[in-house]
Amino acid sequence: MKKILNVLFVALLAVFTFSSCSDVPAPYEILEPGSGNQDGVQPTGEGTKENPYNVVAAQQNQNGSVAWVEGYIVGTIENVYDEKGDFAGNKANFSGPFEIKTNVMIAASADETNEKNCLPVKLKNGSDLSNALNLQDHPENLKGKLLIQGKLAKGFGKAALIETTAAVLNDKEVGEEQGGNTPLGDEVNVTDKAPYAVSFASGLAGFKVENKVSEGLTGDVWHYSKKYASACASSYNGSKNVAAEGWMYSPVLNLSTLTKATLTFEHSSYRAGNPNELMLKVKESTASEWVNLTIPNYSDKRDNKVVTTIDLSTYAGKKVQLAFVYNNPADGSNNTWYIYTLKVAAEEGGQVTPPTGDDPFGLDASNPKSTLIADFNEVSQNNQNYSLEGWVNKAIQGKNVWQAGIYNEDKYIKASPYKVASGETMETWFITPAFKVDAKNKFTFDCAGANWQSDMTLKVFFIQKEASGSLTKEEITVNGIPISGANYTWAKDLNVDLSAYNGKVGFVGFQYVVVSKAATKSLPTYQIDNVKYGQGGGTVEPEPEPQPQPQPGDKVYTSNIKLPEGTSTDANKASGGTVSVAGTEYPILKLGTGKALGFWVSPALKAGSTKVAFYAVGWTGKKGKLTVTIENGGSFDGGVTSKDIELNGATAGATGNPPFTITPADGDYYEFTLTGITASSTIKFSTEKSTSDKRAIVFGINVK
């Protein structure tokens, strides 16, 4: 009755306010099974190719299943960058120009412009689907009717279709169809000799999460907690607790060979556990109804970890699925639940052993994969500790782990000793899930480095976990890992030769080691991208290479625009060359001679650029002037089109011939805000106003 009254109220509200499609009242933003959305559009379809879901049904069936969805292509989700050039979120683009190839949005109407009524569809970069569907290359696809298959799961923080593999656009088939709807999670065989044992110390261990009630939360109810090395459920949104209900589902557990089974898990809670709020359920894989399992013992505080054992023999010989359920009603206790380990075995399993000295990573080899990929396209925040379900990111010495990196649309992970104490050794690992080595497959990755230091290393290991739980690590020599040369230059498709391990189950680990010099800029850095294991290895075309990416707090000496090459002076008295700072050489722009002015004009800038930053020095013991001018559209902040910079060689300057050895001062760094920049705008660097020495060296030119 309450729902009927709510619907009548919303309908009356729409009549009296003459709401348009882009002003849908808030109640429509919360989807409930069986309810409509998008101005009365009802969920339809079965998720099959013959009877696909419409967008409303796809938004409501975010259960991890593979399904077909139909709608009209109405735009894209594109990245937004702040005035510093750092990633600042996403926005919907309905009208173009479109600047991304890795997603489209679909809706029930070809004219939809309300993002709430759209379903983001992720497209694997370089795939047949991306090549055929993306709006950057094919703006004519806008408003085209699309039938597409993928996984119904969250993307861009909302209901989405991800892991897409097949589509039909304008009656043309693209990609390779998957084999129908799949159950939530993978299936795992549990036998007398092979129990199912997982630790949540480094991720959700293959469990899937679903929010039933989460209004007011900024993330999922169930999530991985790095701080407490657990799967964690909470109703706290950063400022207060809200009503929340979340489910965390196990893979399907195949107990068909067992005659008895026992479930054991370790957990704790922030305050005393309430069986109406912290629940465990089970169902047979083909059933629709969940059955409550009685939890006989609860914790009463976070540090009081308890081990619970439950007899599952009723389900021996069957396929089952488990679900941890966290329910915090409006008048609930605002508890937090932590799950640390879980084990299902043929007899009493006991506690799952957490990582020890023999296995500091907590690796799980019980469910090896056949293929792997980490392209980091899901990264949304720069300089944040990176986490990917099933993969391990762990510091062994020091506290730094691999972090996410973003530059323009390029996404990767990176390791550096930022804020590590001087003289302290940093060692951090990034490790794949377990996989079985197959001779027909290849393992490849991309790698770049910067600010080379003699003791910085990136090594690759094949790791095996013995029955005793201890690890064996064998280093694999990978040809092509950069150890010197230009900063941030990518080495592509580096091959990890696993031929000696054919048929074995193991992990590949990337180990970064360096001794910190306590620097906060120009840090010794390694970057990794496009980690792949499968047939052909790195055959998917990666996103464009990132330009040099500043570390936190850096004023970088590299440039993201092309500078003159060679040391020969051109007709404008401009040339290239290098400058040596702290033993590392960087490209420069050199202007003028002692008596002849010089000038140089940059390549055209990217429309919408908002900042230019650079270092500029004159000659040692000399005074000069550098003039920087915006030409062909745009200006500096305040409307002026030129800036004059006094160069005083008393602070830092050049002498002799390139490479010039310079120790830049803070006063040699310049940063200006730009406005109104177009695709025709350029920057002119000149010494034309200098009345004394007419030379200048400019480097670290970065336009964002």
Going by CATH, the architecture of the largest domain would be Sandwich
Number of helices: 3
The N- and C-terminal alpha carbons lie at a distance of 56 Å
Helix content: under 10%
* Strands, count: 45
Radius of gyration: 29 Å
Strand content is 35-45%
The secondary-structure class comes to mainly beta
Largest sheet: 9 strands, mixed
3D architecture notes:
It comes from gut metagenome. InterPro entries: YhcR_N. It holds the Pfam family DUF6359. The protein has four domains: 30-175, OB fold (Dihydrolipoamide Acetyltransferase, E2P) (Beta Barrel), CATH 2.40.50; 187-345, Jelly Rolls; 372-534, Jelly Rolls (Sandwich), CATH 2.60.120; 574-703, Jelly Rolls. It starts with a helix and ends with a strand. A hairpin with a 4-residue loop joins strand 11 and strand 12. The model is unreliable at 1-5, 7-37, 179-185, 348-357 and 538-554 (pLDDT under 50). Helices cover 4% and strands 39% of the residues. The strands form seven sheets. Strands 33, 34, 35, 37, 39, 41, 42, 43 and 45 form a nine-stranded mixed beta sheet that branches. The radius of gyration is 29 Å and the shape is globular. The longest helix is centred in the first third of the chain and has 16 residues, at 2-17. It is built from three helices and 45 strands. The chain is mostly beta strands and 704 residues long.
